[in-house]
Amino acid sequence: MISLNHKKRLPGSPHRSKRYYYVISSIVAFLALINMSAFKSESGSAGLSELLKPHFSKQDSMISKRAFLQVYKVLMSPRCMNCHPSGDIPLQGDDSHFHLQGVKRGHDGTGLYALKCGNCHQSHNLPGLHMPPGNPKWHLPPANMKMVFQGRTPHQLALQLLDKKRNGGRSIKALVDHITSDTLVLSGWTPADGLSKPPLTHKAFVNAFNEWIKHGAISPDPENK
Amino acid sequence: MKRRYFIRLSTFTAGAWLLTDLVPANLLASGKPVDPGFSPDPLLKISETGKVTIFMVKQEMGQNVITSLPLLIAEELEVDLRDITIQSLPYEAAKSGNYTTWASGSITGSWMHLRKVGATAKAMLITAAATRWKVPVDLCKAQGGRVINTRTNQILYYKDLVKEASTLTPPDNVTLKDIKDFKLVGQKAPKTNISSILTGRYAYTMDVKLPRMLYAALVRCPVYSGKVVSWDSSALNGLSGFVKVVQVTQMNEALNRNAVAVIATNTWAALQGQRLLKVKWDYALNTVSDTPSLNDQFKKELSTATPAQVYGKEKKGPFKPIQHPEVYEATYEIPYMGHAAMEPMNCTAWYKDGKFEIWGGFQAPMFINSVLPKLFNIDRSDISVNLMPMGGSFGRKEKIDGVAEAMQIAKAVDAPVQVIYSRIDDLQNDFYRHASYHHLSAVSNPGQISQWRHQLGIATFPGKEISGPWHTFGGVMDDLCYTTGDYQSAFYPVESPIPLGSWRSISFSPNVFAVESFIDELAVHNHTDPITFRFNILDVAGSKDNQRLKNVLSKCADQIGWWQEPAKGRFRGVACCIYGHSSSIVAHAMEISVSKDKLVKIHRCVAAVDCGLVIDPDGLKAQVEGSLAWALSGIFKNEITVSNGMVDQQSFADYQVLRTNEMPPFEIILIPGADNPGGGGEPAVPSVGPALCNAIFAATGFRIRELPIKKHGFRLV
Amino acid sequence: MPTIENTYSLYINRKETRVTVSPDMPILWLLRDVIGLTGTKFGCGMAQCGACTIHLDGEAVRSCVTSVSRAVGKEIITIEGLSPEGDHPLQHAWAEVNVPQCGYCQAGQLMSAAVLLRENPEPTDQDIDDAMSGNICRCGTYLRIRKAIHLAAAIQKSRAKQS
Questions:
Q1: Based on the domain organization, do C95 and C136 belong to the same domain?
Q2: How big is chain A by its Cα radius of gyration, in Å?
Q3: Where do the structural domains in chain B lie, given as residue ranges?
Q4: What average pLDDT does chain B have?
């Protein structure tokens, strides 16, 4: 029974069009041209969206922002946010309560001492209510790159995702790959018994993410809470 | 006494005491001869090799009777602790009542007897030595497992006196040691079973392993008296280790549930089978079946119904509400509670040649003999019971539901079978601490309470049957410790949808919570310090216990520095309890801070404890520490709720218990007391909750009238 | 649901042990029901309480959710094998402080504490919280466990000096 779960095929990556790669590569090329240090700012005044403005229309900007709000809904769902907490204690359950065992992040994100993630979380979900969900890579972001989602506004989170200093050193392409095919990200859509899935399908999530990038990776306005 | 044999699991020596860990068994007789030794009492045997064995009649579940009770025999017997072995006294149905272990009564109930056992044996050994030396007994004294001739300094070890002592008639009267001469009692004693616990060799009830043993996990009806309609076990075909499915019936309405058991060759297979088995139920709901309607029912009963029982100055008569313009009132809602001992319920049974043998841990094994033979249509002597230590109980294991299940299943297989409860089974098939609803009203001024009414709605089971006073009324009948002028308490039973049982400190936990919260409310209402107010309304002259309570409160106040202002941002609360039936008195004081986002931090917690004469001070402190953890867990986090007749909580995820990061620092003051010991396992539970809630009120102005505290958004840090 | 049993060669308490069980059987039940090592306890079966904690290649895994197949090629140590002589600094400290009450959770507590002490020879109270909050004790021995871990750290240090 467990072995069945273990072998369950994870959804594959969505089909990507040529136009997609064209847009992505042009953004990547564009980003390479400009000074990356400009992306440091959290306020957004000199953020990516500003710098990208000349290349994207007002309509693009609207589409991009709207797409990110979809992405945001997923990232702030318990399946994603619980492992991107604002503190060093992961969250649990659909109500995102503090991890009951008082687990701490540890420097590499895999827990501390007798409370390392892999001590309970297996390589796969275990059947039954309240059983620990599983994935071979189960962990939190490391202490030096916490990638906090909890408490971030759409504006803040969009900027953070694009900032290599705060997104795990990921290029846009790496970011897209991460959300598209990382098994730990994907495991959010095969939650353990009794836990909800994110509000969008994985496919819709990836589509929205790509839409956001394609139309300029514009962050929603700061007042958009 | 029937001859008994034991399968020796292991023996481990370290520390001062020696304990053999034995899984007792009748059916596995090895045929070894029994050395009769010198045994003036069933609880004590001295063998010719010098081995001193003390037999435990009380059941061990963490309260450390396995140390404190043998200590009393050893004290009078004058034996070296190193020479003592402790064993569980083989169970004898005819004396089943002796084995009952509850209500913090082991020490109070048996301490004189145990001393007499030790003293009698000592007197006989001295007589034997004096006879051999041909000197008067007065010239002989016992010390360190030997008799000494004080004139010649000759010595005889006990082992050398076994034969002669065995021929003597036990004296009717023996002199007990003067308390001031105690050498072991009152000192820190190493736990007698500690070495085996720390090396994993201490066998709890679930550790019983018998040849060809099978394991059974049950799918029980989630509604207490629901019935099995049908089941589908097709998903179990091919499950490795699966043996068969057996129906288990509810034998009477207070015993067990209807269920279907999955039997397998190992626990894992049984648990998997339990998850795969589909059972169709007829819930047959016919009573108040969820928590909100239970609370509505309480309100209705209190406002309209005539109480089932009334206590007061006049003892009887109708309930008379207070008719006074200055009446102050408050209502407290207190939920059901589960036990969730670390060792889930389990029981092993073997049916062979028309007889049953049982292995398990029971606070009251007498129920096995009084209830089950009739239901199984067998003789009392057809059930033998092997008593083993429990991995926690807290009242849960006074029930024998597991035995009724295991015996039914054992009849259906040709092997011993262990019924195991998953954590979900354990929480959902508990016998819960009753839910209650308290309406208190009083007329008071800073110096006195002139009128007092306590209306108490209690969930009762089965039906509306009210159990004994300690069980539901403790602390609020005519045993309220405060002087209240015109006094009445009234009880309104409401039928409970879920079965009920004892919970560490029984009725005192809800009742004392209501009373001590209300006393705090009255103190605030009268602009009076809560301890001063208590002093004002304690009739110290009227009762010795009230004098002790005043002393306990004073010591507690002094320790926490009650009479000085706490540091800025810190607030204090206090509460106390006379735990009447085991004559122990406790007060708790807490110093806390509460952040804007309702994080409660307990900076200091003090308990002052007067348990009378203290036998095992370290063990007593352990009980008081444990009581704090137990009570904090309950008051802050725990509640059992019911929906459609079914318990909602399933595991430590939704029945969260206190963890080490939430355990506050704790200072315990043991107040040297009287010449008699009191109980220690429960008395320090009830006052924890109200002390904390009173402190939360002091900090926030928010009065907690509905438990658990967590419900109001507070979190313990 | 057909399940297949496999034969495994496992290293348990420094001994090679061959067992034939289904691959998804948690190590807890292998230890208790198949091998007869009952020192490792069942508390919840959901990795919530820590009573079943063992060492798998030195990590404090919860054996109630960790299948036998995960143990292949790894070393299992249980409470019975924590210290062959029963003289681990933690066992000494636990005895000195009279930690256990019912004792049922203590095997798990010790196995968790052993990882803490190995990785952090001088743990602070905060470190103890960070390591031990996964182990529930319903008897409420938490304060003594804390005290005993500090004591064990001191014992470990003085032993290291002596040797």
A1: yes
A2: 18
A3: 35-198, 205-284+345-420, 292-336+433-716
A4: 92
Question: C73 and C96, same structural domain?
Answer: no
Cβ-defined contact of C62 to A126 (cutoff 8 Å): no
Give the model's pLDDT for residue B475. 84
Six-digit token string for C163 = 């040797």
Which residues of chain A neighbour C127 with C-beta distances below 8 Å? 112-113
Per-residue pLDDT of C1-10, as tens digits, reads: 556 889 999 9
Closest alpha carbon within chain B to C32: B207
Closest CA to A194 of A101, A151, A130: A130
Q: Which residues of chain B have pLDDT under 70?
A: 1-34, 286-287, 314-316, 468
Is residue A33's pLDDT more than 70?
A: no
pLDDT digits (tens, 9 = 90+) for B188-213: 999 999 999 999 999 999 999 999 99
pTM reported for the whole predicted model: 0.92
Nearest CA in chain C to A101: C134
Q: Which domain holds residue C31?
A: 6-81
Which of B101, B199, B606 to mutate to probe the C interface, most C CBs <10 Å? B199
What total of structural domains would you count in chain C? 2
Measure C129 CA to nearest chain B CA, in Å. 5
- Sign of the dihedral defined by the CA atoms of residues B182, B186, B188, B190, in that order: positive
pLDDT of amino acid B273: 97
What pLDDT score does C84 carry? 79
Judge whether C66 is closer than 8 Å to chain A, CB to CB.
yes
Cα(C145)–Cα(B632) distance, integer angstroms: 18
In whole angstroms, how far apart are CA B336 and each of B629, B634, B707, C123? 18, 10, 10, 39
The residue count of chain A comes to: 225
| Angstroms from C105 CA to nearest CA on chain B | 7
- What count of other Cβ atoms lies within 10 Å of the Cβ of residue A71? 25
Predicted ipTM of the assembly: 0.97
| R_g of chain B, CA atoms, integer Å | 27
B240, B636, B654: which to substitute to probe chain A, counting the most A Cβ within 10 Å? B654
Determine the Cα–Cα distance for residues C139 and B558; give it in Å rounded to an integer. Answer: 28
- Tokens (6 digits) for B199: 């090396």
Closest of B3, B22, B2, B1 to residue B11, by C-alpha:
B22
Question: Domain check: are C59 and C99 in the same one?
Answer: no
Q: A3, A113, A129, A193: which to substitute to probe chain B, counting the most B Cβ within 10 Å?
A: A129
Paired sense of beta strands B417-420 and B214-220, if any: parallel
Return the CATH architecture of domain B35-198: 2-Layer Sandwich (3.30)
A5 touches chain C (CB under 8 A): no
- Chain A residues closer than 8 Å to C116 by CB: 113-114
> What's the half-sphere exposure (Cβ side, CA atoms, 13 Å) at A74?
21
Residues of chain C found within 8 Å of residue B195, distances taken between Cβ atoms = 86, 95
Least confident of A27-41, B118-132, B655-669, C89-103: A27-41
- Whether C110 maps to a domain, the answer reads yes
As a whole number, the mean pLDDT across chain A is 83
Q: With a CB-CB cutoff of 8 Å, which residues 83-142 of chain C face chain A? A: 111-113, 115-116, 119-120, 127, 129-135
Span B202-241, pLDDT tens digits: 999 999 999 999 999 999 999 999 999 999 999 999 999 9
Given C81, C102, C121, the domain boundary residue is C81
Q: Report whether CATH 1.10.540.10 matches the domain B205-284+345-420.
A: no
CATH code at position C157:
1.10.150.120
Are C116 and C133 within one domain? yes
A-proximal residues of B, 415-434, CB under 8 Å: 424
CATH number given to B292-336+433-716: 3.30.365.10
